[in-house]
Amino acid sequence: MAASTSSNGTGTPLLREFENGRKETILPGRGWWNKVLDMEEAKHQLSLSLPMILTNMFYYLITLVSVMLAGHLGELQLAGSTLANSWFSVTGVAVMVGLSGALETLCGQGFGAKEYQILGIYLQSSCIISLIFSIIISIIWFYTEHIIVLLQQSHDIARTAALYMKFFIPGLFAYGLLQNILRFLQTQSVVIPLVVLSVLPMLGHIGIAYWLVQCSGLSFTGAPVAASISLWISMLLLALYVMNAKKFKQTWQGFSMHSFNYVLTIMKLALPSAAMICLEYWAFEVLVFLAGLLPDSHITTSLIAICANTEFIAYMITYGLSAAASTRVSNELGAGNPERAKHAMNVTLKLSLLLGFCFVLGLGFGHNIWIQFFSDSPIIKKEFASLTPLLVISILLDAIQGVLSGVVRGCGWQHLAACINLATFFLIGLPISCLLAFKTSLQYKGLWIGLICGLLCQTGSLFIFTRRAKWTKLEISEDKDKEQPLAI
């Protein structure tokens, strides 16, 4: 970067020139904060991340509303629907979001390189992959009762959860397609329409779910049926938008058999992307399971589950910035601007830390209020207060690694990130959790300290890797079915 300045200091504008020849004027006296945070880049990223936060929240509320309505039918229905929703998160959400991560790399870099016509082909190929895995997961869901019983759960709860999952199978197919279309739009920085197209089915879902659960006679099974219907409506709204909006004339040119030629190639990126997401999701679920093996399991399980849910809510904010980082990095790499991609990453990290600090300050001063949303037990309130400092640390680490994971997806390094997640969570974090929880007096605190160790190692590894790696556009070949993603 080069800059020209005035020798008389009378207010001549500064001229900043980037490697690609783009020039930007900075007025004297107004650019000092750019040394701390590039405000233009920050505004651009916030304009991407805030709509994505709202969009993901609205889609999340579709499944949550169904669980809430089912829970009002009785304690067994509450336990069964809650367990089913957790099972959906572990086997459905994690896998489908992960598989769609391949599009963050390919569509993002393709859009940056102005290879517009290939984006629709990538989308169709990824949808084919999602449909294949939806069939596999559906078969697993038919055996939900047997699997949950093996995990030491009550037969009645397992049977209720299995019933919920069977009626939710159609929703899984819609969810997989929905995630692919979201990535297709996100990588083109089309995010404002997503808020509208997600809030409408969410609001409609409240009425659909209430009618099916309370009025139609379906009762408990009406909850998953309503969620499936609303997810299909959500997916169809996005699909119709893509097929009919003029702005996608170049990136969507209709259905093509040509997309089958890219399935195996994209699979090589989609599988490590899914592994990368799943390993992190599963680590938190294992932590909740381990809490159930400790003394006073009803208290320890509740505490760890509350902390995991709090962390997930905080991560929903970070995920918006992670999506913005992925989009900005992939677009800039596709356009051949690695330095600007790195600059975008640095801005996103600062924004994520800022939002993370705001969240943990609110949690630190308001933890007594927050815990009341989950429990009225004085014991749980007291123990949660002692666990809050550890929760604050993990949230801050998650804020950093969430952005770095977005950068990884934007660059096409998912296979290496999957290895890092496997090592840091399952070879470092969870063993430390077991050691501290079962061999010392720390118990549930030991579980969370182990998680912090895993997050610290994961964040440090991703940070070092992104700093040392050579940032280049992912080269993908249809004919040779070969990728050339990285040089270090």
Walk me through what this model shows.
This protein is mainly alpha-helical and 488 residues long. It folds into 3 domains: 35 residues, no CATH class; 206 residues, no CATH class; 204 residues, no CATH class. 75% of the residues lie in helices and 3% in strands. It has 13 helices and 5 strands. Helix 2 runs parallel beside helix 5, helix 6 runs antiparallel to helix 7 and helix 10 runs antiparallel to helix 11. The protein is globular, with a radius of gyration of 23 Å.
Shape: globular
Separate helix tally? 13
* End-to-end separation: 23 Å
- What series of H and E elements makes up the topology? EEEHHHHHHHHHHHHHEE
What count of structural domains? 3
Gyration radius, in Å: 23 Å
Unreliable stretches (pLDDT < 50, length at least 5) are 1-30, 479-488
> What value does the average pLDDT take?
86
The percentage of residues in β strands lies in under 5%
Q: State the total count of DSSP E strands.
A: 5
**Largest beta-sheet characterization:** 3 strands, antiparallel
- Helix/strand class: mainly alpha
Strand order of the largest sheet: 1-2-3
Helix content: over 70%
What attributes does this structure have?
two-stranded antiparallel ribbon; disordered C terminus; MATE_euk; antiporter activity; membrane; xenobiotic transmembrane transporter activity; transmembrane
Summary?
With 488 residues, the chain is mainly α.
